[in-house]
Amino acid sequence: MTIQHPNLILKKGTMLDRTTIEEAIQGSDVVIETVGCVSEGTKLIIQAMKKFNVKRLIVVSTSNARDGKDLPDKKFTLLLGMTRGALKLLGLFHRQYRNAVYELRKIAGMVRNSDLDWTLVRVAGLTNKAKSNDVKSGYLGQGIISFSTSRADMADFLLQQVTDKTYIRQAPAISS
What is the value of pTM for the model shown? Predict the structure, then answer.
Protein backbone atom coordinates (compact mmCIF):
# COMPACT_ATOMS: atom_id res chain seq x y z
CA MET A 1 0.00 0.00 0.00
CA THR A 2 1.36 3.39 -0.99
CA ILE A 3 0.28 6.42 1.00
CA GLN A 4 0.74 9.80 -0.63
CA HIS A 5 0.08 13.32 0.61
CA PRO A 6 1.88 16.61 -0.08
CA ASN A 7 2.64 17.02 3.64
CA LEU A 8 3.80 13.43 4.17
CA ILE A 9 7.39 12.30 3.76
CA LEU A 10 8.08 8.58 4.11
CA LYS A 11 11.47 7.60 5.52
CA LYS A 12 12.90 4.11 5.61
CA GLY A 13 14.96 3.18 8.65
CA THR A 14 14.87 1.64 12.08
CA MET A 15 13.94 2.95 15.51
CA LEU A 16 17.54 2.48 16.61
CA ASP A 17 19.17 4.52 13.82
CA ARG A 18 19.83 8.00 15.24
CA THR A 19 20.57 9.49 11.79
CA THR A 20 17.32 8.28 10.26
CA ILE A 21 15.33 9.49 13.26
CA GLU A 22 16.98 12.92 13.17
CA GLU A 23 16.38 13.24 9.41
CA ALA A 24 12.72 12.34 9.90
CA ILE A 25 12.18 14.76 12.78
CA GLN A 26 14.12 17.78 11.51
CA GLY A 27 11.62 20.30 10.13
CA SER A 28 8.60 18.46 11.57
CA ASP A 29 5.90 20.05 13.69
CA VAL A 30 4.61 16.88 15.37
CA VAL A 31 5.87 13.34 15.95
CA ILE A 32 3.42 10.43 16.21
CA GLU A 33 5.05 7.22 17.46
CA THR A 34 3.09 4.03 16.86
CA VAL A 35 5.88 1.44 16.92
CA GLY A 36 5.86 0.56 20.63
CA CYS A 37 8.07 -1.80 22.64
CA VAL A 38 11.36 -0.12 21.63
CA SER A 39 12.27 2.16 24.53
CA GLU A 40 15.72 2.90 23.12
CA GLY A 41 14.05 4.21 19.95
CA THR A 42 11.73 6.42 21.97
CA LYS A 43 14.76 7.80 23.78
CA LEU A 44 16.34 8.71 20.42
CA ILE A 45 13.09 10.32 19.25
CA ILE A 46 12.88 12.49 22.38
CA GLN A 47 16.54 13.50 22.00
CA ALA A 48 16.03 14.43 18.33
CA MET A 49 12.87 16.38 19.14
CA LYS A 50 14.80 18.43 21.70
CA LYS A 51 17.68 18.94 19.25
CA PHE A 52 15.36 20.29 16.54
CA ASN A 53 12.94 22.07 18.91
CA VAL A 54 9.92 19.93 18.00
CA LYS A 55 7.52 20.11 20.94
CA ARG A 56 4.48 17.89 20.13
CA LEU A 57 4.79 14.13 20.71
CA ILE A 58 1.89 11.68 20.46
CA VAL A 59 2.66 8.09 21.47
CA VAL A 60 0.54 4.95 21.27
CA SER A 61 0.76 3.09 24.55
CA THR A 62 -1.09 0.38 26.40
CA SER A 63 -3.78 0.46 29.03
CA ASN A 64 -1.24 -1.45 31.15
CA ALA A 65 0.64 1.85 31.48
CA ARG A 66 -1.62 3.00 34.28
CA ASP A 67 -2.31 6.67 34.93
CA GLY A 68 -2.88 8.59 38.15
CA LYS A 69 -6.32 9.64 36.87
CA ASP A 70 -7.42 6.01 36.51
CA LEU A 71 -9.89 4.73 39.06
CA PRO A 72 -10.14 1.11 40.21
CA ASP A 73 -11.67 -0.92 37.38
CA LYS A 74 -12.61 -4.48 38.34
CA LYS A 75 -13.48 -5.58 34.79
CA PHE A 76 -10.20 -4.32 33.37
CA THR A 77 -8.16 -5.81 36.23
CA LEU A 78 -9.97 -9.15 35.79
CA LEU A 79 -9.33 -9.17 32.03
CA LEU A 80 -5.61 -8.45 32.52
CA GLY A 81 -5.38 -11.15 35.18
CA MET A 82 -7.12 -13.68 32.95
CA THR A 83 -4.82 -12.81 30.04
CA ARG A 84 -1.70 -13.17 32.17
CA GLY A 85 -3.00 -16.39 33.71
CA ALA A 86 -3.86 -17.95 30.35
CA LEU A 87 -0.46 -17.08 28.92
CA LYS A 88 1.28 -18.46 31.98
CA LEU A 89 -0.83 -21.63 32.02
CA LEU A 90 -0.18 -22.27 28.35
CA GLY A 91 3.46 -21.28 28.60
CA LEU A 92 2.94 -19.20 25.48
CA PHE A 93 4.70 -15.91 25.09
CA HIS A 94 4.57 -15.22 28.83
CA ARG A 95 8.11 -13.82 28.91
CA GLN A 96 7.56 -11.88 25.68
CA TYR A 97 4.31 -10.42 27.05
CA ARG A 98 6.01 -9.41 30.29
CA ASN A 99 8.91 -7.84 28.37
CA ALA A 100 6.55 -5.96 26.04
CA VAL A 101 4.56 -4.55 28.97
CA TYR A 102 7.82 -3.57 30.69
CA GLU A 103 9.04 -1.75 27.56
CA LEU A 104 5.73 0.06 27.08
CA ARG A 105 5.72 1.18 30.71
CA LYS A 106 9.34 2.32 30.36
CA ILE A 107 8.40 4.33 27.25
CA ALA A 108 5.47 5.89 29.12
CA GLY A 109 7.82 6.94 31.91
CA MET A 110 10.32 8.51 29.51
CA VAL A 111 7.58 10.41 27.72
CA ARG A 112 5.98 11.61 30.96
CA ASN A 113 9.36 12.79 32.27
CA SER A 114 10.16 14.77 29.12
CA ASP A 115 9.45 18.48 28.81
CA LEU A 116 7.58 17.91 25.53
CA ASP A 117 3.89 18.56 24.84
CA TRP A 118 3.15 14.84 24.93
CA THR A 119 0.03 12.74 24.80
CA LEU A 120 0.13 9.01 25.60
CA VAL A 121 -2.82 7.37 23.86
CA ARG A 122 -3.53 4.16 25.78
CA VAL A 123 -5.33 1.49 23.78
CA ALA A 124 -6.42 -2.07 24.50
CA GLY A 125 -7.50 -4.85 22.18
CA LEU A 126 -6.80 -3.42 18.73
CA THR A 127 -9.15 -4.79 16.08
CA ASN A 128 -9.49 -4.56 12.31
CA LYS A 129 -13.11 -3.41 12.50
CA ALA A 130 -14.24 -0.50 10.35
CA LYS A 131 -14.01 3.06 11.61
CA SER A 132 -16.94 3.74 13.92
CA ASN A 133 -16.59 7.51 14.37
CA ASP A 134 -17.48 6.82 18.01
CA VAL A 135 -14.19 6.89 19.91
CA LYS A 136 -14.52 7.10 23.67
CA SER A 137 -11.67 8.77 25.54
CA GLY A 138 -11.03 9.20 29.23
CA TYR A 139 -9.59 7.19 32.07
CA LEU A 140 -10.05 3.65 33.32
CA GLY A 141 -12.70 3.18 35.97
CA GLN A 142 -14.99 5.92 34.63
CA GLY A 143 -17.21 3.36 32.91
CA ILE A 144 -16.66 4.72 29.40
CA ILE A 145 -13.63 2.74 28.17
CA SER A 146 -14.25 -0.74 26.76
CA PHE A 147 -11.78 -3.49 25.90
CA SER A 148 -11.29 -2.90 22.19
CA THR A 149 -10.43 -0.18 19.69
CA SER A 150 -10.44 -0.41 15.92
CA ARG A 151 -7.14 0.54 14.30
CA ALA A 152 -9.03 2.98 12.07
CA ASP A 153 -10.54 4.75 15.09
CA MET A 154 -7.16 4.83 16.82
CA ALA A 155 -5.56 6.40 13.73
CA ASP A 156 -8.31 9.02 13.57
CA PHE A 157 -7.87 9.86 17.27
CA LEU A 158 -4.08 10.17 16.83
CA LEU A 159 -4.55 12.61 13.96
CA GLN A 160 -7.03 14.65 16.00
CA GLN A 161 -4.39 15.03 18.72
CA VAL A 162 -2.14 16.95 16.31
CA THR A 163 -4.33 20.04 16.76
CA ASP A 164 -6.51 19.17 19.77
CA LYS A 165 -4.85 20.38 22.98
CA THR A 166 -7.27 18.64 25.37
CA TYR A 167 -4.89 15.84 26.35
CA ILE A 168 -1.49 17.59 26.34
CA ARG A 169 0.67 16.07 29.09
CA GLN A 170 -2.04 13.49 29.74
CA ALA A 171 -2.57 9.78 29.04
CA PRO A 172 -6.15 9.10 28.01
CA ALA A 173 -7.36 5.59 27.32
CA ILE A 174 -9.47 5.16 24.20
CA SER A 175 -11.90 2.56 22.87
CA SER A 176 -14.50 2.25 20.14
Answer: 0.84
Mean pLDDT over all residues of the chain? Answer: 86
Which strands make up the sheet holding 30-33, listed edge to edge? Answer: 30-33, 56-62, 117-123, 173-175, 136-138
What does each C-alpha distance from 5 to 25, 29, 123, 137, 156 come to in angstroms?
17, 16, 27, 28, 16
Contact 153, 93 (CB under 8 A): no
Sign of CA dihedral 44, 173, 131, 125: positive
Question: pLDDT at position 174, please?
Answer: 94
CATH number of the structural domain spanning residue 29:
3.40.50.720
The total of structural domains in the chain comes to 1
Q: Say which amino acid occupies 95.
A: R
Asked whether residue 154 is assigned to any structural domain, the reply reads yes
Nearest to 43 by CA among 6, 62, 82, 17: 17
In a domain, 5, yes or no: no
The sign of the dihedral angle between the CA atoms of 54, 55, 56, 60 is positive
> Which range of residues forms the domain containing residue 137?
18-175
Buried b (16+ CB within 10 A) or exposed e, 79-95: eeeeeeeebeeeeeeee
